[in-house]
Amino acid sequence: MLQIGFVAAAIVVVAINVALILAVRRNRAHRGDAPREGGSDRRGQFRVGATLTAFAAAIFVLSVIFTDQARKTPASGDAGLAAAKTAPLTIKATGQQWLWRYDYPNGAFSYYKLVVPADTAVKLELLSTDVVHTWNVPDLSGKRDAVPGKTNKVVFLADEEGEYTGQSATLSGQAYGAMRTAVEVVSPQAYEAFAKQQKADIDSAQDRVVGLIENGEVP
Amino acid sequence: MSEKPRPELVIDGFPGKRRPRWVELATSADHKDLGRILICGSLGFLFIALIELLLMRLQLAIPENTFLSPVGFNRMLSLYGTDAIFLFAIPLALGLFYYVAPLQIGARGTALPRVGQIGVMLWAAGATVLYAGFLFTPSEAGINPLAPLSELAFLSNNGVDAWATTTGLCTLGFVFIAIDLLTTLRNLRAPGMAWRRVPVFSWAATVCCWLLLVIGPVLLAALTMLMIDRNYDGIFFADGSGGAPLLWQHLSWIFFSGAYMLILIFAFGAIAEIVAAFSGRPLVNRGVVMGSLAAIAVLGTLAWMQNMLTAPIGIGWMYFAMLMSLALIVPFGLVVYNLIATMSRGVLRMRAPLLFALGAVSSISIGLAAEIDHSMVAAAWELKNTTDSTAATHFALVGGAVFGGFAALYFWFPKMTGRTMGEDLARISFWTMALGILLAFVPLFLAGGEKGEVIDAYKFFGGTGVSGYNLTASIGTLILAAGIVMTLVNAISSRVNGPEAGHDPWAGESLEWFTLSPPEPHNFDVLPDVRSAQPMRDIREAIAHRTASTPAPARESQPVA
Fold this sequence. Notes:
The complex is a heterodimer. Chain A is α+β, with helices and mostly antiparallel strands.
């Protein structure tokens, strides 16, 4: 898609600038030159207009085709998470000034870093608790806005394990420039272990806090 | 026969108390004075915008720089955007329209001068508020402060209020000026000047004024809602309780998309005049060019959602925005085609106005070609809100407002002052600016499109492969600024020192070249009957014909009166 766009843009830039340069070089004034006559040519205009329309229509049709492909939920591969074979793994991504929070299906959550299984379709539900944020990890998918009061979504499938980074892309206040996120793609087994461990850690930490409050050690 | 001394009925007494020049200028409702205020003011604000841009680029010259604080950067960004759009680009276009268009159509003044004067004063008041805001706290919410960041809950100082006041006063002023100009253009055209014979620049003025009448009130409505939200517990843009953050995006982008088109329509109107004058022939297919300019205004404004392709809106709306943006290829293409066709059938005199006009076409072509990518939905998901979009916008709008505006300035400066601007300095300035804009913004295309560097951030991180790009961009911006300052200096020094120009230095086509330079307050003593779209060409031919056929008739008055 980007390549098509780049080619289209390059055609436009080169065509216009070459035509400009040629027009200037051929028609600089020499002594005794008189401008050629000949005014409007309606038929030429229709030809030019039709060519431009065809160019625009071709880009439009190509974009619709590619956009529809990009919007399709990819099918999880065989090596992917067993639980996400039919429906994509749905994770809630909440933007807040200036951090991303990820809520996993089993109730675990993490800040800053998202952990997902490889070869598995992942659907991120983008929410915001304060201002508009843009979830942006260019190596995994296109960017989408998290707007308060609305739910947006991003679907992606990471083939390879590894760590991907991204930076929020809508001005959201003071620390906007430092609002980054990371996505760690691991094997499905490692993902399941992570989610379980994270859930257990959070539960035990919460139990401990509840215990402290009940004992009166924390007001 | 000796004359008797006539009894003096009028005594020499009662000398009118002559007011200082600046008071005359500030209280004048003459369109030329108001145009001059707008042009000089906007060029001053261009200089300030340059300083702000340079400070931001200095911050972004090296990774994780701490030259500006995050808040300081956001304030600079908000000031720069507001200054560049509301205090420089639109008023420069309106100022040139205001000065030139009534002269082009042969009007002795504008139809509603006091309305236009109020408009200019409102604009001046808006500019004062913006930089008075600098004394306490400027806005931190960015060029287009998206709700709910602009709400009181997130920015509780009065910066956003000052921003809304500035943009509101300026926009109201633009609407007033548009009302005056539009009334003039509709009612005060010279005898015989049907719409099909209106000069292209005046036609561009008409289209831009209609456009302002449509988009201005939309932004004013949005700003009113924002002020109610911030100061009277409103909920227009607050999420929950029935408000909608996306509403702000729709309303503001309608205005900003329209303003983007306004600047390009202004630029192409001026470029068309200049290309025709310096090719020595009438514009090819005038009617098609004029129709295209009108189509650009309509399609470009309808494409406002092109800016919202990453927002949660339906895919159908995204395709609609893409369709409208891509449809713009046709009118823009036809305009550029006919400009080049005019040049290739003419004999080109490469003077400063033409040089800048061609630079503008070239720069705009790069910006608009990149906008094609930003309109293709799936590509936009990758490219939006990266420095790639910064670069695209700047190529189009610096091309339109700075290169195009300077072309118009070089072209009509002799009419305004009676003197021509320096040609050598103009050439140096042009090539410096051309080098500068390429060095400043091509690296940002690469940093955004290739590495995904995000827009508006107060810093970038080392090791992400964008350090070299950013450093080049900072150096390029400095060169661009140097080139721009050269033209500003050129304008200031040529006002007194430039070579005398005479009333028609370029052999122009339209009626502004019929009057004196600078024009008298009433513009014209006499007006010719307009019989074609090139009245001055007709006049020159009539004179040539007459001098060839009859021995020079002794005639004091202006020909073809």
